[in-house]
Amino acid sequence: MPDYSAFTFEPIVQGLVTFDAAGAPVFNGRGVSAISRVGAIPAGAFILQLDAGLPGNAGAVPPGVSPLANPNVRTLITTRGAGIPPIPNIVTKAVDYLLSPVPGVGADRILVVMQTFPIALADPAGGFEIVVWRTS
After folding, report:
1. Which of 23, 81, 87, 122 is buried most, with the most CB atoms less than 10 Å from its CB?
2. In the chain, where do the E strands start and end?
């Protein structure tokens, strides 16, 4: 069994995404300076701009072994539901770290995409929590 106490844990993003009355995503937490929808996609796809300051330093997600994958960066997304009991409508979640155009900077944005069943992009009924961290 691995000894997790030997790893350094560095939080990058921690917060809650909800939706205002107009349906626009709102980020409440640390590490993200802006959140927006992806182009003309009306639901289920978001771009989170990493904060230039701590803890969401845009350089905190360095380039990994491939252009898009750093094995030391992890993301946890927990969708929230609606109703009693609250039932989430999301069945699939995907995350991609978007590299900065500046060489050697790493990712400065995170793309989050969510689907419901039958397959369609959708916003989670009660929003979602997101945590991004780096280990060494």
Report:
1. 122
2. 9-19, 25-30, 32-37, 45-50, 73-79, 92-99, 107-116, 120-121, 128-135
